[in-house]
Amino acid sequence: MEYVVLNNGLKMPKLGLGVYQITDEFECRNTVESALDIGYRLIDTAQAYHNEKFVGDAIKQSNIPREELFITTKLWLADTGYKSTIKAFENSLKKLGLDYLDLYLIHQPIGDYYGSWKAMEELYEQGLIKAIGVANFMPDRLMDLICNNRILPAIDQVEVNPFCQRQIDEIMMKEKNVQMQSWGPFAEGRNNIFQNEVLQKIADKYQKSIAQIILRWLLQRNIVCIPKSVRIERLKENFNVFDFKLSNEDMNLISTLDTKKSCFFSHYDPKIIEWLCSMK
User: Fold this and answer.
1) Is the full-model pTM beyond 0.90?
2) How many C-beta atoms surround the C-beta of residue 26 within 10 A?
3) Which stretches of the chain score pLDDT less than 50?
4) Which one of 3, 20, 40, 49 is the catalytic residue?
5) Where in the chain are the domains?
6) Is 49 an active-site residue?
């Protein structure tokens, strides 16, 4: 496993498992248990995924020492605000069956996230969270949060994949010592990513899959990634990315795939924000 060190000194695995859209209890528990058996130690869930309890059950079943695990969950926008955040955090912790979280993120830059950040700062200082951060914060919102609060976000979890590479965001985060984390590294299969000729050519060169090439590309950019799969063979494949390294030439070749656009939606689009707000 490779690691990053966050801005507060916390060590974090660079590769983990995301459990978005795994809402069936048996499937979620089985997936997390299988991932932990393979060697995954970073598990990323969220209040909005409705599977925190299933993840917690799998963690308990594994009997892996707590200090070896790195567990992330996220605050949904319906619970932003100081008091609501504390209550939501306590509920998430209870569902996960844990005494503390390694990382707690504000899921969307919507609502009273300033009140939420104040609550998270206090929970962090109480030792109930090892690191606090955000998700889906575009550079302007991230900079605003940085400039007007005491504690620097440790993470910004954003969409990063070969078609949406976030290179400008990456520069800003490095300057401010905020770790970039990728959700949707495979773009959920969009734009025919698994049939892409450039990626396939590179995959053939290293005798790896396109998925493995994408993950290696992210790791070499020092970006934490949390690919999701419910298939054991894919979990193993995604984890088997530490025995090779892409050349600078191949890294640069992948950079040519960047469209500089989201494969999903833009947080700069007022209609998207209105849609997200309707989900409170």
Assistant:
1) yes
2) 8
3) none
4) 49
5) 3-277
6) yes
